[in-house]
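Intended use. Records like the one below are meant for learning the mapping from a protein sequence to its folded structure. Do not use them to infer anything beyond what is encoded.
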Amino acid sequence: MRSIFFFFCICAGFFVSAQTVDSVQLGFKEYLGYVKKYHPITKQAEMVMSVGQANLMKARGGFDPKIAVDYATKEFKGTEYYDLLNTTFKIPTWYGIELKGEFEQYSGEYLNAERNVPDDGLYSAGVALSLGRGSWINERMATVKKAKFFREQSKADRDLLVNQILFDASLAYFNWLQAYRNSILFNDFLENAKVRLEGVNKSANAGEIAAIDTVEAKIAVQNRALEREQANVVLRNAKLELSNFLWMGDNIPMELQPGVVPELSLDVEIDQALEILGKPLDSFDLENHPKLKSLGYKIDGLRVDKRLKTNKLLPKIDVEYKFITETPEYLNSLETQNYKGGLNFELPLFLRKERGDLKLAKLKLRDAQFELDNAEVQIQNKVLAIYNELASFENQNILIDDIVASYEALLAAEERKFSFGESSLFLINSRESKLIDAVLKQNQVENKYFTAKAKLFNSLAVNPENL
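Structure written out for the chain above:
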């Protein structure tokens, strides 16, 4: 009778483990594709690029040609005191050179002598330039250069943001996978415990075994039911965590449906989705790391700021020269004896403000260089540590697979001995508990192995192009 009971338990166990339900698989690469395309954080990352481009456009606006019109008039008791019109057209250029054109027309009873011009007005054209401060760099030039570096820095920051959200999403997927495996594990063993309890009850009713054995079988069912319930809670919470990363195109959050299950074979799929496949340690290149590139562009911008502050130690020497003519349509009317000119000289005696600004700029630059040096060492050591973890987890996976296989063999042997009356339910339950612990540890090691791969992806700051 016991051999028939043993055969019934084994067949029922195979039936439970082979049992499948209708489900839809959410692949890891497909899931990350949704995250990268629709998640609000990735959209914010693209906005960082737009901010960089907008800043560059704003900076280039400092070199836009400008037209200005200044008009004023006064009339009182039938007397025209003055009627003043002054229009200017300026074209800023690089290195502090500015091209200027001007038209002046003044009339009225009360005018300053310097505003006596022909009735048809006076035209002038010339150039203004800085010979000291603002000669080889000025605010406009510095703003454009820093905006260009900021735009490139924005690209690197965009990659970092996308990489971080994909890393967080990957961890949520791995936790979901582990919770799903644990839930399936306890569900299978609960069904096996129920089948075993049914068989024990029949044997006890037939008088072949002691009635106390039914109590032990019932406790085993209750323990498995408790463990399954706990595992299901963890699974439901893992699904909720995963749902944080699932969005639709119009910023509509999605919730993972009950019939959706994770992809079970991820070892190669992870490397392909995260684009870390075939990246040995000796292929790691620090120069192209987005974090270091971002800091590098930051340092470039600070160097420009330092040059600007250094230039401000020079005296301000602005000169201006314009040809004057009544008939601008004739080029030969521009004669050197008809001109307007000017010179502006300015120099603070102590230069305390300028020297203080320069010192602060140097300190900021030095601080950024320290940050870059520290980041290089941290990234390099972090990557080396992760490669060590991956090598260790590959060995751990082999060991835990062997351990699980050994516990499975022990459980099968104990059940076979029980069929011959040479064992007890207590020993079978003990072997089964050891097997469950081993499988749980197997799932945990697998999760840590996948997490280590995600950490490598995060440390390399990869922005996958094929998602």
